[in-house]
Design a protein that fits this description.
About 35% of the residues lie in helices and about 15% in strands. The protein is of the alpha/beta class. The strands form three sheets. It has a 14-stranded parallel β-sheet, covered by helices on one side. It comes from Candolleomyces eurysporus. Keywords: Coiled coil. This is F-box domain-containing protein.
Amino acid sequence: MKSPFTHHFNTNYVPSDNEIPAIRDAMYRGEEVLNDIDQKSYEIERRMEELRRELQALAERRETQKREVDELMALLSPIKRIDDDILTSIFLSVLDVVNCDHLNISKRHPAVVISHVCQRWRESALSTKLLWRHLHVRIPSYPYHSCSQDTWRAEIEKLVKMTEMWILRSNDCHLSVEINERRSPTLLSPQEGTFVAQCIEFNTLVALLCSSSPRWKDWHLKTDFPQEQCPNFPTMRLLAVPPQPTPVLTNAKLYFGVDEYQQESALSKHLVSGPNILSASTLRSLEIGGQVLTHDILDLPVAWANLERLVFNGYQGGSLYSFDAVQSLRLLKACPNLVTCELAFERDAAIPTGRAPILLPKLKELLLLPHKYHIPPHFATSFLLPSLRKLEVTRGYGQFMSRDHEASGLFELLERFGSTLQDVTFCYKPLTESALYHCLQQLPNITSLALFSDHRTEITTSLNNDILGHLSPKFDRAGTTITQLPLCPRIEVFRFRACSGDLDEEAFVDFIEARRREVNNQPLEGGRRIARLREVDCGYYDFRSIDPGAALRKRGFNMEAFSLTKWHYFPTR
């Protein structure tokens, strides 16, 4: 309702006596309109409140109905229909794919996570003893100050309880034991060393671990013993575990981190002083790090003839012993049943001639880490290896001069065993280009080839156009028929690691294209055919002049069923 007096609003106008009744009448009519609006507003609010209550009731009803539908859907869930045996197999498969750090005893362990999903899963997890077979204990860093002693003791106390639980839940199954002792940020003071050595909780933990030793199948000890400060440190008892009446130990790994360099360490003496858990007749795999022994490795009470896998990274610095190729002959002669072997040579040594070769009929994989890059001459002729399929000769240390094939121990190895090898890895830098060619010439049957360089040398041998050209087949004028097989015609996997500038990038792309080309692959030279390359690992090489992926695609190269990995393109500007 519009008043006839609105034009006087917000002015200093004073109404006359005749206008006052009209103004009051207009005011009364306006109040009636206000009352009508208020009444309608009240009615609407009342209806809205009723609608809100109805809406709330519908929401509650929907939630109830949704829970019922979810429960019905859960009844039809495929996981509920899986038999307990299959469910258990799924649980166990998880242990094979998780990161090793997640197998440490903790609340994050897959077995713990699985056991907290639902009642059925918990019952299944607790009754599956193999789910708890990984007894991986990471000992917290030792307290290096008195203010951290209580915190450390509390952590050890929790670890004791969890270790007890693991041992109990694993029941009587064989255990995979890994004990990882963290290095303290500083050396322990005599007072802190005494505190740790006398800590009841810590000694209880070590005693618990030792009590489970009759069930150890896999034993990995990675530890930093404070030998000089605490000769009778509790974890030393892990090395003094006696031989078991019915041993099950199959795999053993020993890695120590020591700060001392001694001619004879207490730890090493512990290991060689008499029978211990390594004396198990069931032991098949032994791995010893480079800081473990100061005594002759053959003094270990090991049934060497039973070993199928051996890894030895040499002696501790300061020891009277240094492992070399000559000593390796003694060691390998004692291990006639090896299938896999990895040895690190700490010094160069001349191989004596005139000895009968050592027969290792089962050896399939041999990895050598020479002191320098050169394998000594006559090393290859010291062995008969009829089953050898994989050979790696990788990084060494020290200065070296490049050798031609007549003086190369690596060439001798490839010449002697190349016909049976299928997987070969070696550093090409200690070789002249001619020697590298002759080495590759000895590998007619390999399916995997890896060539590594080293940035510490100025030797100019490289993966140039000539070498890559020898690895590429020759074609007729039409480019559809192979007229000459390349070196290593069976390779399907090629890996390299080269320094910047070591690779002829254009020739590299030519090599890949030639080894992937679809051609009339008629048998040549004794019925041999060329295999198609399916995987190339570039070892994070920085390409400067060419983008290999783009160059291959530009040539119409079919990238299907082919993998080109680990490379970067940084064009030169």
